[in-house]
Amino acid sequence: MGHVARLAGVSVRTLHHYDDIGLVRPSARTPAGYRAYAPADVERLREVLAYRRLGFGLREVADLVGDPSTNAVAHLRRLRGLLLERRDRADAMVAAIDRELAARAKGLKVTPEEQLGMLGARLYDAIGDAYTATRRTEPRFATRIWDALGDARTVLNVGAGTGSYEPADRVVTAVEPSAVMRGQRPAGAAPCVAAAAESLPFDDGSFDAAMAVSTVHHWGDPIAGLREMRRVARRVVVLTFDTDEAGWQDRFWLTRDYLPEFAGVLSGFPSLAGMADAIGGRAEAVPIPWDCADGLFEAYWRRPEAYLDDRVRRAVSVWARVGREAERRAVRSLGDDLGSGRWAERNRDLAELDAADLGLRLLVA
Ligand SMILES: C[S@@+](CC[C@H](N)C(=O)[O-])C[C@H]1O[C@@H](n2cnc3c(N)ncnc32)[C@H](O)[C@@H]1O
């Protein structure tokens, strides 16, 4: 018992207590007749201690480890998901603290919303519940993605969110780290694993294809995530954004004239060529239709009034990332220009276009 206690970093008293309450009962015996931990007991002890470390109470832990339908691998997956959530939450808090420190250093006033915002979960746990208001399947994007999946029967959807682009005619498995997003998946949606792209809990070549839509820019390590997709699937399809083109910041009037901070949001984002390399694929341009049904950042390029609508902005992470100050300034300034006719004057040529190339790219490998 002392040896196991030392290995696990807990006291012998704790192990006695777990034995007394029936949580972890050593089932083997030493030659001298003392109780000893069999491999299955050690496995159970490890699960108990890991759930305890994550803050679960003894009764909850007993329910979790006592669930006969959950084996060791399922426990590891669940623990992994819980730890990733915790890590993301810590990352989001660090980012929020950095933003507040920067604001304070500039002498800016920090609002109560901003101060309390850092206590929220990671980005999509914070903004995720606004997502379904405007983020829907754009059928022209869906056709491109599904064509690129070819004859794949099994498909992994990484950073799946609410599953907007999951093809109904294939066997889909979703991966999504945000509990809020997972919670909004419609009834009957594909099964969803709590995990992150950078470390997919699947064996090599488990799927015919892996897809990722509007998510790579959120990953802590996009190249690692893309390599993981390559590892677990024969075919890889990724809808992402091109920042290779010189002056890409000026491609879209919103970034060019109102929200130059967007460039900062994508400053550490890998090049399109680097991402294509990671999966061994090619890039195809995806024009954004003027009436795009999926309310992504660029979706309203010909409907500028939409950006004045809080609901539209809340469903797009860019606005949360640039911070309230930049958002307020951009919206005020756009509103002024729409009112004065300045926007219309500057962007006269857009009225003629039905679709615009604003840097959206499909990587196919
Ligand atoms: C803009 S949403 C896109 C959701 C969905 N693919 C769609 O097109 O509607 C981005 C998603 O990426 C998820 N995400 C963030 N970090 C991730 C990571 N490291 N690995 C996988 N997904 C991640 C977010 O939680 C969020 O649900």
TrEMBL record:
Q: Can you name this protein? A: MerR family transcriptional regulator
In its keyword annotation, does this UniProt entry include Lyase? no
Domain HTH merR-type intervals:
1-67
Identify the keywords attached in UniProt to this record, alphabetized: DNA-binding
InterPro entries found in the cross-reference section: DNA-bd_dom_put_sf (IPR009061), MerR-type_HTH_dom (IPR000551), MerR_fam (IPR047057), Methyltransf_11 (IPR013216), SAM-dependent_MTases_sf (IPR029063)
Q: Its domain of life?
A: Bacteria
